[in-house]
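Bit of a strange request maybe. I'm writing a small parser for structure token strings and I need a real example to test against, not something I typed by hand. Could someone generate the tokens for this chain?
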Amino acid sequence: MAEHFLQGYSDIGNGWYSDYFETEGARSLHSGLVAGLQRQMSFASVRIGLYDYVKQWYAKEPDTITIGGRLLAGCTTEALAVTLAQPTDVVKVRFQAQSNLTGVSKRYSGTIDAYMKIAKEEGLRGLWKGTLPNIVRNSIVNCSELVTYDLIKDALLRQNMTDNLPCHFCAAFRAGFCTTIVASLVDVVKTRYMNSPPGLYRNALNCSFLLLTKEGFTAFYKGFMPSFLRLGSWNVVMFVTYEQLKRALMLVKKSRESS
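Reply from user aminoacidic:
Good idea to test on real output. This should exercise your parser:
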């Protein structure tokens, strides 16, 4: 994701933020914010909201949930989320890519304009471009996020850590690091492929092969640090907020049942 974001800048340790602020301005860090919000609201409501229910459905017994059941639940909810919300991801990637263009008129003036132009110029298939590789990518990310968080949290609780904010923070931060390591392999390919002009790559596998042969294996980890900053902070905010909301809703439910 962050691979196109870094072209022309020094690395994180050598003042990347100061380089970026000087050339692009602080507002550019939020380029594509509306499209990003549309994507997260669509994806998260399905993949996170349904995870616990699907996990229980895959469990042979209510109190026995295996790693395989968790992985299946993560893949199932993510595949459903991508199928429903893929157009929001295409628009988000296009918006972030056009923010790097200089001396060229912007292709899209807003998210609605982007949806309409893509549908008109590329057909409805254009809005679902890269759906299969995105399902693969997001299933990997979803599993590494949700399943890793699930397992790390369970391990912390077995070590007598209280199920509270510090526990949620530690589990979310570690899950974010694991997610970045796993997701970077497919994240760069996804961004390259979804943002490529028609005909440049035959498919996602062809994009991966050309990337590997022309730029080497390290190309798959371009932008690792900004990706970790993004995924790490995202995981902390997401899981901590989710846990607090879940706890609040459970308290409301109990109070209603007791009254």
